[in-house]
Amino acid sequence: QVQLVESGGGLVQAGGSLKLACAASGRTSSIYRMGWYRQAPGREREFVASITWSGGVTSYADSVKGRFTISRDNAKNTLSLQMNSLKPEDTAVYYCSARVIPTNYWGQGTQVTVSS
To answer: For 46-91, what is each residue's pLDDT tens digit?
Structure first.
């Protein structure tokens, strides 16, 4: 199993920045890919960004391209999401995920609120 703990959420004004972090523990050597998802009130959970654990290949949702940057530190088993130029529509609970084929693991989520 893999355990994930997110941190770094909070309240920020539109145009501001936040950096989320996710600490992974357990079977981290088996992780294929990690990513961030978000869920706003009344909406389904949606993909934000992902990165392959060994090769560092990244993928982003169109809505965050050019504003968010995903990165990982394999030595520390941590995943980060740098969020710049935040918009009110970025407000959501952000979840860290880890893919250990064929299972997806999830963190408990961290709230990000962007005020206009």
So the answer is: 999 999 999 899 999 999 999 999 999 999 999 999 999 999 999 9
